[in-house]
Amino acid sequence: MPRAPGAWPPWRGRRRSGVAERRARLALALVRACARLPLPLAHALGAALGWLLARVPNRTRRVAAINLARCFPELSPAARRRLLRRSLVEAGKTLTEVGALWTWPREALAPLVREIRGREAVDAALAAGRGVILATPHLGSWEMAGHVCGMEWGITSLYRPPRLQGVEAFMKAGREHLGARLVRTDRRGVRILYERLRAGGVVGILPDQEPGPEGGVFAPFFGHPAWTMVLLPRLARRTGAAVFVGYCERLPRARGYRLHIHPVDAAAIRDADPGTAAAALNRAVEACVRACPEQYQWGYRRFRTRPPGEPPWY
Potential cystine with 305: which of 70, 162, 227, 261 (Cβ 3.0-4.6 Å)? Predict the structure, then answer.
């Protein structure tokens, strides 16, 4: 039977599948190798990787440089270059610490949590029978933030499956092994979040990932319109949950981590106008990023979607 015009021949599909499988195996091998290293050595390896990223032309460096130039126009070019280098070093540590964070037991990871700032407000909301939404942006060690919240409150979080399907099961198990629960970003997952909040539980959402075409509005972020999710404010408005933003600061010299938790403007985040609510969310995230700018994921194309008529950034 002749193949439809433009259809992939069967052997090409098998070859693409084989390449993805090999990439997944390689990724898992690297993660497991990093897991065998002491955390100081893993972070030193990550810092070396970041140093290389800062010196060799690559997309991550290019995107990060564009974002920093737009978001910190008040800095001198030299200061932005220093911040770029520091952020790429921290990005390298994010990669190489994953092995430890996904595989080490509670007895090894729990002592690395040096402090939880702001936990009293979360505990008070839960004691009053309210659900809690914790917005955890890509700042510091968001993997460790999930672990801390899993150990302390049994958090349920949304996640997007990775591009390499062969990594998903390992990744999910690694993120859940200290008490967190992950649900996919789909209708069933959102329904589970509603159930958890109405039962007085804690849910986690990454607030700085671009939503789909129907799931966002433009709201200011570092003075620029950013396509921002409406799901989190909608959850807060419909369930009455308390909303916080949090991030896990990576302490220098591999001394551990410090979780910071801050309340989000309660009235604004529940505003019926999606733009007002999204702006409140972005203000809270921006305040956290400004407190620890070198640990933000500047290599992510946060401003990829532009308002009609505006030129692309990247």
Answer: 227
